[in-house]
Amino acid sequence: MHWFILKTELLMTDQNTPPLLALVDGSNYIYRAYYGIPGLTNSRGFPTNAIYGFTTMLMKLLRDLAPDYIVVTFDLKGPTTRHGICVLEKQGVEADDLIGTLTARASEKGWRIAIISGDKDLMQLIGDRVTMVDTMKDKTYDAAAVKEKFGVGPEKVVEILGLMGDTSDNIPGVPGIGPKTAHRLIEEYGSVEAVVENAEKLHNVKLREKIRQHAQQAKLSRQLALIRKDIDVDFNLQDSARREPDRELLAGLFSEFEFSSLLHQIKGNAASPVKECSIIADGSALSELAEKLRRSNRVACEIIWEKNPPPVLIGMSFCMDSESFYLPLGHPNAERQLTAKEVLDAMAPVFGDTRIEKYFYDLKTALVCLESLEVKAGEDLQLAAYLLNPARQTYELDEITWEYLHERIPTASEVAGGKGKTYPLALVPVVKMADYAGRRVEAILSLAQALQGRLEEAGAASLYRDVEMPLLFTLAAMEKKGETITDNSF
Q1: Bond from prior residue into 18 cis (ω within 30 degrees of 0)
Q2: 157 Rama sector, left if φ>0, alpha if ψ -120 to 50, beta otherwise
Q3: Which residues of the chain have pLDDT under 50?
Q4: SS3 at position 376
Q5: How far apart are CA 247 and CA 444, in angstroms?
Q6: Are residues 330 and 320 in contact, defined by beta-carbon separation less than 8 angstroms?
Q7: Residue from 7, 396, 25, 55 nearest 257 by CA
Q8: Domains in the chain, ordered, with CATH?
């Protein structure tokens, strides 16, 4: 039996409120998620329905229930093994019995307990401080809800199940006895044992014969339904305190399974550090920047185009070492800005210097749309990202940055709108655009090393360097003959 202790941030409760322990029946939820979300796969055909359903349930649970402690249990078939997270193993013991044992221990401490499951047999554990939450049905069971469902209190659930059985838990019960008959018999006699002992007194001949023939099965069914609370397990409840999750690990898994909505949920607290991006808006500052870049071995360049086609040039940003710079080119409301020709002429020695490694994101578009742009020793990280995963649906810079750096950078829609509203990037104030462009170009420089390492690991570095990049320049040169520039500065 594996017990996965999910580490998430500890939430402090009110001083007078007992802590809340959530005990999640993981096997139950994975089974339900698998059949509840059929046919879900990632682009490589890997089935992700059970993983997605279980993960969304768990994230919703943490958000809505906000437990102080949480333990997830899974049934384990075969030998147990240890993994790199907090694991409690108990070979040969069912998850229900471990949940029952931890429920008893937490109750002794005066804690509140929420059992997260849809299994009827776990309802026998419900009490004054114990509830059961079926998140998939959005239903919470207390003693009154159990009484409404079975006609008896939680302490008699095991007797009901002993007679009617539970196919989901392989409890046979007595054939032909359903909930109503089971309720009537337990209400009259109090227990399975008493029903069996008084079978001869039953007026219904068919019912009397069923119980007489299946007396041992009824007793066995009750025993199967009974949850133990005394399992000898070496586990400290304090070890299940909620802690901050490993966002890097989650991001990698969510990216692999292509859970874009879940990735978005965990991005919120992972914004990359904001650094000041210098604005270059006059010829003197441009010349100084060009000289500074020529002294560097590695330079990243981000070209900002208007969001919608045709491509209209808004600005350019550069990054070297820990410094970033934004050059406004197409802001109609800017007090001062450069022309595209001024920038491309000043940067021509940088772009043409083979000693300087230059990193772009979608270099091909820049080569096609900027007639005078010539680049030597240039790298296109968008192409590298494609080679690493050709099955991706999109290759937006913010998505690739999140996947490989686990840092959040702003999108064009965020910087030029939000909450359903959007406007052209050209209308974004230069200072705000500098922050946007600066963070993107810094991400490109950081991505360069990460993607190059991944290409080496995948055995695709030679394909990228010797085949794909030369082909990119060839295709761009062919397309350039038929392209025009919409920037008014030329």
Answers
A1: no
A2: alpha
A3: 1-14, 78-83, 85-87, 483-485, 488-490
A4: coil
A5: 21
A6: no
A7: 55
A8: 2-248 (3.40.50.1010), 271-480 (3.30.420.10)
- Could you report the per-residue pLDDT of 173-213, keeping only the tens digit for each? 999 999 999 999 999 999 999 999 998 888 888 998 999 99
Give the tens place of pLDDT for each residue, 28-39: 888 888 887 777
Instruction: Give the Cα separation of 49 and 35 in Å (integer).
Output: 8
Q: What is the pLDDT of residues 297-310, one digit of tens each?
A: 999 999 999 988 78
b or e along 416-439 (b: 16 or more beta carbons within 10 Å of the residue's beta carbon)?
A: beeeeeeeebbebebeebbbbbbb
216 token code pair: 């041992």
Model pTM score: 0.59
What is the CA angle 128-133-138, rounded to 5?
Answer: 135
Question: What local confidence, expressed as pLDDT, does residue 418 receive?
Answer: 60
The CA distance from 490 to 7, in Å, is 57
Which two tokens mark 181? Answer: 């008959």
CA dihedral of 266, 268, 272, 276, whole degrees rounded to 10? 170
Kindly list the strands in the beta sheet with 139-141, ordered across the sheet, starting from the edge strand earlier in the chain: 87-89, 2-4, 69-74, 20-25, 112-116, 130-134, 139-141
d(CA 67, CA 116): 11
User: What residues form DSSP beta bridges with 301?
Assistant: 318
Q: Distance between CA 406 and CA 187 in Å, rounded? A: 59
Task: Using alpha carbons, list the distances in angstroms from residue 128 to 111, 112, 144.
Answer: 11, 9, 11
Phi, psi of 382 (to 5 degrees): -65, -40
- HSE of 106, CA atoms in CB hemisphere, 13 A: 33
For residue 85, give both structure tokens.
């997270």
Q: What's the Cα-to-Cα distance from 380 to each of 314, 376, 447, 448, 457, rounded to whole Å?
A: 20, 12, 11, 9, 18
Q: Which amino acid is at 52?
A: Y
